[in-house]
Amino acid sequence: MTGRQDRWAELTGGQAGEQYARRFARLAESGHDIHGEAAFCAALVEPPARVLDAGCGTGRIAIRLAGLGYRCTGVDIDASMLAVARREAPAQEWILGDLARTDTLGLEPEFDVVLAAGNVIPLLAAGTEAAVIGKLSAVLRPGGLLVTGMGLDAAHLPLPEAPFGLADFDLWCERAGLTLRQRYATWSGDPYVPGCGYAVSVHARPDHPDHLDRPHPGSH
User: Fold this and answer.
1) Alpha helices in 45-199 (DSSP H)
2) Does residue 2 lie in a domain region?
3) Long-range contacts formed by 189-195: CB under 8 A, 24+ apart
């Protein structure tokens, strides 16, 4: 990557796949809706839109979206997580790779949605966040959407504190040619207000690459 270990690897040692899968299996068995992220994306674009699940983990979201008719590709740097994804959906496209080096993974700029859920951005290696957002923006088609979900405080992160704030994140997105389109406090669409501990953000690429400052029409 850059010689720096991402925060996820520091927390898990790259061996969290089975444990992570069991956690969500228990939630589903207890009646919790574990498909909020997929439902959120499905409300933004219709199948068979192309979705890149960046930091896909065990494939929970990508597998759900594929079942709804979306064309999904999952990328993750944690081999233990991808082992679960490949076992659960062997016919889907799963790529072991670094989000800071998506240009080496053979991904074309043809995705309608790039999804980075599950605190993917806050758990990147320190100092790589802006570069990763730039790489993710680069694989979006004109008019495509970057959809992110992240904790903003220790109560919503597996970290003692948030490594950056929303102002930093929005600046990185702006520099990557993205415009904030919507922001919510949950995947269910609850309104975001300053001070919320979690943010679900939708940033859009312009419809025309030569008009980077043109606002994206329409709304969710």
Assistant:
1) 60-67, 79-88, 129-138, 166-175
2) no
3) 189/40, 189/220
H helices of the chain, where? 7-12, 17-29, 36-44, 60-67, 79-88, 129-138, 166-175
Given the DSSP bridges, would you call strands 71-76 and 111-116 parallel, antiparallel or unpaired? unpaired
Q: Are 173 and 127 in contact (CB under 8 A)?
A: no
Backbone angles phi, psi at 58, to 5 degrees: -80, 5
Residue 216 tokens, joined: 């994206």
Query: Which residue in this structure is represented by tokens 């951005």?
Result: 121
- For 50-81, write each residue's pLDDT tens digit: 999 999 999 999 999 999 999 999 999 989 99
C-alpha 153/C-alpha 79 separation (Å) is 28
Domain-embedded: residue 218: no
Does residue 210 fall inside a structural domain?
Answer: no
169 in a structural domain:
yes
Per residue in 138-186, pLDDT (tens digit) is 999 999 999 999 999 999 998 999 999 999 999 999 999 999 999 999 9
Cα–Cα distance, 168 to 216 (Å, whole number): 21
Q: Which of 31, 37, 39, 68 is nearest to 55 (CA)?
A: 37
Spatial distance between the Cα atoms of 218 and 39, rounded to a whole number of angstroms: 19
Compute the distance between CA of residue 47 and CA of residue 45 in angstroms, rounded to an integer: 7
Residues 6 or more apart in contact with residue 213 via CB below 8 angstroms: 206
- How many domains does the chain divide into? 1
Please tell me the pTM assigned to this model.
0.84
